[in-house]
Amino acid sequence: MRKCGSANAVARQFQVTDMTGLNWLNGDTCPEGWAVFRAQQWWPEEFDLDGGRDA
Fold first, then answer.
1. How many Cβ atoms are within 10 Å of 38's Cβ, its own excluded?
2. Which of 3, 4, 17, 51 has an alpha carbon 20 to 30 Å from 44's alpha carbon atom?
3. Closest C-alpha to 38, from 5, 8, 14, 12
4. Do residues 32 and 24 make contact, with C-beta atoms less than 8 angstroms apart?
5. pTM for this model (two decimals)
6. Sign, CA torsion 1/13/28/50
7. CA nearest to 24, candidates 11, 37, 12, 34
8. Count of alpha carbons within 13 Å of 33, Cβ hemisphere only?
9. Tens of pLDDT along 22-45?
C-alpha cells in the first residue's frame, strides 16, 4: 500500500486482477514467487533485514 496506494494500483503494478490486489492488501492472501521477486527488485530497501541501518 505504501508503494502503490490502492488495490487497483497494486493490480496494475503486478499485472494481476483488482481482486488479487485487494486480497493482498487485506491480508486474505499474500504475494509469492514472481511477485515477491519483482517487488524485491523494485524496492530493495523494503527487504533490508536491518531496515537500511548500518550494522
1. 14
2. 17
3. 14
4. no
5. 0.75
6. negative
7. 11
8. 2
9. 999 999 999 999 999 999 999 998
